[in-house]
Write a structure and sequence with these properties.
The chain has helices at 3-19, 23-26, 32-39, 43-60, 64-71, 73-90, 96-124, 129-156, 161-167, 170-185, 193-197, 205-234, 239-265, 271-287, 293-320, 325-357, 361-381. The chain is an all-alpha fold. It is globular.
Amino acid sequence: MSKERSQGLLLLGIILISINLRTSIASVGPLIPFIREDLGISNGLAGSLTTLTLFTFAVFSLFSPGIGKRIGNGRAIFLGITILSIGVIIRVFGGVELLFFGTALTGIGIVIANVLMIPFFKAHLPEKLGLLTAILSTGMSLFAAIASGVSVPLAVDLGLGWRGSLASWVVLMILALAVWFPQAAAKPSPKSEIELAGKNVWKSKLAWQVTLFMGAQSVMYFTMVTWLPDMLIFKGMSPVASGIALSYMQLISLIGTFFAPGILMKLRQQQGVILGVSIGYLFGYSLLFGEQQWLIYLALTIIGIGSGASLSIAYTLISLRTLEDQTTSKLSGMVQSAGYILAALGPLLFGVSLDLVGNWDFLNWFLLIMTIQFLVFGWGAGKDRKI
């Protein structure tokens, strides 16, 4: 196989892997009423499906670098998508027990692939690191939005039911496995013992700055996704209009998601970009205090672009702040583990605070405070240093 054809197949594989890393999560939320009615479970139990996924992300992010080191990142990513596919099928072929077991497997499969994609880019195509990171982030975000939008039509309009709707995404996963197979079949490149060992990222101040930066952006994103519709309904929007507003924010985020890595890769230090995004957040969240719909959409435009850029910045910093491949893997695991723990806690903490305060303006103040955290940790993470 020619080098051009081989790289083309690799690029197609990366695209297919990226679009499978969020569909199995994003497709669940709109179908929860159907799942709840069919299985006779409570709202709390149904809602815990998302919490379970985030928990598996947090735990298995720590083990993913070791799996990649043992069998090679290409094979480990193949293994992750295989586990994801099995989980997607298992969770629709039984009752509550299989639903939760399959959901846990999907989380494990996703996080193995997700953690190791960036180290894989750095090892195999370092000259295209910015482009590949942009493709990874954009594919994840785009197909998360698509999965959210088509899950109910697949279940109702096409008559697949919630089980068929969730299971249908396995087609894309099988296609990804077929295209990725050459990367799994290739032998891992030999490395020196020093490089294989990597650095102890848990003792690095810089690693913690990157990790807490990821955590801050995760808290802001998941808190907005969880609570924005309720806040907009409180401001007078209909439930349908509030859902459209949330979808708009997610779709507009693709602009920041795609273009941020290319900009970052051209800079020696990334603090200026992080400062710019932070100013955008401060302005956008401040506009949400308003009631007018045009003002809300202006706010969501600014926040959405910043949200997409933030995710890409976090992923890009994992590569830029490390030297050895194994250190990149370890930092990726650390960053995503802590990030998802905070992502799970953020909406919960705000919900408890809302019960105590009883004022929706507190959401904006909460997000403004998180923006300061985002800037503080991002300022240190954006400096031109290596772990």
